[in-house]
Every structure is written in C-alpha cells, then in structure tokens.
Amino acid sequence: LLSGQAADAVDYFQRAIVVSNDSPFNQARILYALAWAEFRAGQFVPAKDHFTQFIKRAERGENKYIIALMKLGDASYNIHSYKEAEKEYRAVLSILESNKTQYPELYAKALINQARILGKLRQTDLAVERLDIYIQGAVVTLDKLDALKMKADLYVQDNALEKANQVLVLMIDHYGFINEDVFMALADNRFNLNQFEGALAVYQNYLNLFPKGDRRMDARYGEVQSLIHLKHYDQALIEAGYTDAEFGSQLYLDVEKTIEL
C-alpha cells in the first residue's frame, strides 16, 4: 500500500473494530489488519500496540502469531528501540528454532533481522553468529552474498578490517561477485591498514572491471594515493594526469605539491 492508501486503511479498520466487539474472532482479524495498515503508514507505536493485542488473542506458534511478533521487532527497530527489538526477535527465534522446517522463510528472515539489530547494538560476535547460521542454510547465492556483505560491514563497523577483508575476498574469489562496493571496500580497508600494494592492486582491478563505474573517481584517487605511499612518484603523476583528463580535477597539482614536501 502507498502511504495515503495505508492511512485510509487505518481509518477503515479503526471504524471496523468498533463494531466487531461481539465476535472475538473478527476482532482479532481486524486488529491484525489494523496493525499492518498502521505499520505501512509509518505509525509504528500504535502498530506495536495493536500487534501486541492481536498476539494476546492468537494461538502461539501459528503463522500470524509469529509474523506479528516479527513486526513488533520491526516496529521497535524503526523507532530506534534496538534493545526492545532484539528482545522481540529473540522471542521469535525461540519459537522458530523448533519449527525451522515448517517456517523456513520466516526463520531465515528472523536470523537476518536479528543480526541487523545486534549490529546496531554493537554486538558484533552475536550478529556474525546469526549471519553464519543464515548463510549455511541459504539456498540462493545472492542471499548468501547479501549476508556476507552485511558481515563484512559489521567487521568494518567494529574496526576489524582484516576480518572484513577475509569476507570480501571470499565474495570475490569464491563466488566471483563482481560488485563495485565490494571491490572499493576491500581496497579502502587495505589502504587503511597501510597495505598499499594490496590496495593498489584492487583499485586498479576496479578500474579495469568497471570502465563506467560510479566509484571511478574514488578508485583513481585511491590508486594515486597508494602510489605516493609506495614512493612511485612518477607513476603517481601519470595516473593523476589521467584522473584530471577523465574528471576535470586538479589532482596532478596536488600530487606535485605532495611530492615537493
């Protein structure tokens, strides 16, 4: 639903719930629909209240019960109540752990979402543990790659750049994942670890693989800076000249000043 349609749906279900008091079954159905409409309209606090009311009426372990618990966590996440969201997703996974075969998609989604929440709480080890379980069970390669990229990002957030690089190299070498952001993350991590030869190789690899890439200016700059750190000044000036020709920058003059210092 679009936001305007969702707001209209909220109004409709709010009116409907008033006339459904005679039927607990109907009231539960309308509570569920109202909570969803509020969630889609970005009304996360009332959505949490109505999902909670629905959960009290629903049968524990049924499909809608689990989804309502997950939406509680999602609503908490969206209002930045990460501790509450983690607690709610812990409750979800306590049910799904024994129902993996019955609800494989919900289980996988819960693992990913809890990992994202744990990342916000800076609980990197637990987040990675969840991601590893998800990756082991993922059937679609793209899903594995998304989880691996999240894992690398968590390590970068934790300043564990070597661990991040191991994941990024796995994505490139084992899965053949040709993605701009993955290459640039690996190059930048190596640069920040003062591994300038390794960084240079990845920057240059990026430039060869992505002749029209969105990150070419960044890669050119990283290439030139790596060459300067390696004291390959003549080559740094040549590459700076190519950069100026491609982007209309003034990198050549900047490199000249740096070398003179």
> Mean pLDDT score, rounded?
91
Q: How large is the count of helical segments?
A: 14
Order of helices and strands: HHHHHHHHHHHHHH
Judged by helices, strands and strand pairing, the structural class is: mainly alpha
Which value, in Å, is the CA radius of gyration?
A: 25 Å
Write down how many β-strands occur, each being a DSSP E stretch of 2 or more residues: 0
- The share of residues in helices is over 70%
> What does the largest sheet look like?
none
The N- and C-terminal alpha carbons lie at a distance of 60 Å
* Beta-strand content estimate: under 5%
How would you characterize the overall build of this protein?
By secondary structure, this protein is mostly helical. It contains 14 helices and no strands. The model has no long low-confidence stretch (mean pLDDT about 90). About 80% of the residues lie in helices and about 0% in strands. The radius of gyration is 25 Å and the shape is elongated. It has helices spanning about 5-20, 25-40, 45-55, 65-80, 80-95, 105-120, 125-135, 140-155, 160-175, 180-190, 195-210, 215-230, 235-245, 250-260.
Q: Helix and strand layout, with pairings?
A:
Elements: H1 3-18, H2 24-40, H3 44-57, H4 63-78, H5 82-96, H6 104-120, H7 124-137, H8 141-157, H9 161-173, H10 180-192, H11 196-209, H12 216-229, H13 233-247, H14 251-260
Helix pairs in contact: 1-2, 2-3, 3-4, 4-5, 4-6, 5-6, 6-7, 7-8, 8-9, 9-10, 10-11, 10-12, 11-12, 12-13, 13-14
